[in-house]
Amino acid sequence: MKKTPEKPKTPQLPKLPPLRKEASTVIVLAISAALFVAALFVAHSGEAKDTGSLFWAYGTETIDFDTATVNEIVSEDMSIDEATEGSYAGSQELAVTIDTGTYAGTQLTAYNSFGPISGHPVEVGDSVTLTIKTHADGDVTATVYELNRIPFLIGFLILFFIVVVLVGSLTGLQSLIGLAFTCVCLFAILIPLILKGAPTILTTFVMCAYISLVCFTILGGVHRKTVGAFLGTVAGTFLAMVFGLGAQFFGKINGLRLEDAEPLYQLAVYDGIPIDMEGLLVASIIICALGAVMDVAMSIASALEEIHAANPKLTQKELFKSGMNVGRDMAGTMTNTLILAFLGGELTLMIFLYARDLSFYHMFSTAFVALETIAGLSSSIGMILAIPLTALISSMLITRGGRR
């Protein structure tokens, strides 16, 4: 009986033992934690600069912000503003009970002034934030600063967490951890470092690269998929920064022309805070591009991993082509996402400019429109160029037997 010749076995790449893969993840996270502690120490070390208060206080007067509950509306004088679709304008005299701070439990009279674009009329039982001024002679006056929206915001945040975990399961939970880590890095490290005079653009880029490293490691551990996504993210974010710098130079505009730059300028001039304000425009481009680039890079790297698992015989060139096909489908929608995010943030400004019947050249020569255009286009360019870079890096890692 004639034996059928056996087919030659396809050589299998050595698989990394699970324990070693987990060890790599632990090592990366441990090093990242050490860097986090070191950066936190640098950001908050040294003598704190006294920048004063946002609100004026004279002599021995002090100002506190505490929550209170409205017990009674003693009097009110308000009317409907017809120009703003039923908004109220006027004032109220309130009897309130202080809930927090030095005067907790004390009953005071508080005054609430409001208009169509500031403040809000309150009702009995509402929780409000008060501005409580203690005068030199011991008298205390209280005015309503705003409605106390913290309980609502906390509840809304909890709802967000529940939705993410229910839909995303363990991956959703990991993404929430990454989101929390990102917020801590931005508020506890990046901003304090910028206020200390660190170079804004370089510091922001390094921080964003660090954030992407930790988030990808939390999300998927250390293997070729996350490595490819991380390298693609760094490359795409770097290119967004480069194009932002080029647009800033040739467009002759920088962070000093940002809409909210004036208060920071006053800090720099009058309080001596060493803020590198010119780099704020490009820094905002880097931060805005990071989320979109991470999304695109991870999607492409994951898709190539699955394609390779389904057909291990594909060459690097074929994998790269597949990655480009996936990326092209994402490019259009993600570009729209970025541009609409920038334009949506300035919707009121666009409506105002349009209502003034400005010419095309006049409108796009304004600093605000130019800034939003530069930011949106630079971020989009970085995101689009991250597609071929991630596809190339991931296809190389996969076909050369990188770690799974």
UniProtKB/TrEMBL annotation:
Protein origin, superkingdom: Bacteria
Transmembrane parts of this sequence: 23-43, 150-169, 176-195, 201-222, 229-250, 280-304, 338-355, 375-398
UniProt KW Membrane keyword: yes
Keyword Zinc: no
Short name of any one Pfam family annotated for the protein: YibE_F
InterPro entries the record matches: YibE_F
Keywords: Membrane, Transmembrane, Transmembrane helix
Alphabetized PANTHER family for the sequence: MEMBRANE PROTEIN (PTHR41771:SF1), MEMBRANE PROTEIN-RELATED (PTHR41771)
Protein name (Swiss-Prot/TrEMBL): Predicted multitransmembrane protein
Organism per entry: Slackia heliotrinireducens (strain ATCC 29202 / DSM 20476 / NCTC 11029 / RHS 1) (Peptococcus heliotrinreducens)
Lineage of origin: Bacteria, Bacillati, Actinomycetota, Coriobacteriia, Eggerthellales
